[in-house]
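I have been asked to look over a protein record a colleague put together. What it holds is a sequence and that sequence's fold in C-alpha cell form. Please read both lines and tell me whether the C-alpha cells look consistent with the sequence. I do not need a full report, just your reasoning and any doubts. This is what I was given:
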Amino acid sequence: MASPTIQALFATPKAFMDMVKAGYQPVYRPKVVKFQDIIQLDGAPTQQVYVVGPNGVPTIALYPMQRQPDGSWRINGCYLVPTGDRTT
C-alpha cells in the first residue's frame, strides 16, 4: 500500500494506475518477479525487486518504505534501475 505522501499526489486510484501504466511497465505487467534484499537508500529501508518487464528487459525496482504512526510500513516511491541485461 502507498504511503499518505504518495496517495496525496494522486486525486484518484485511477490517476495512480494511469501513472503506473504509463511510466512503470516493468512493475505493471512483469513476466518475472523476484524479491531481493532490503537495503538502505537515503536512510530508508528499501525493498529491491528484480522484475522482467513485458519487453523482456530485466530491471531492479526499488521501493523505499516509510513507517507509519501505527507501526505499519507503506511504500513511499518506486525507482526503476536498468540491469543492463536482456532475457529475450
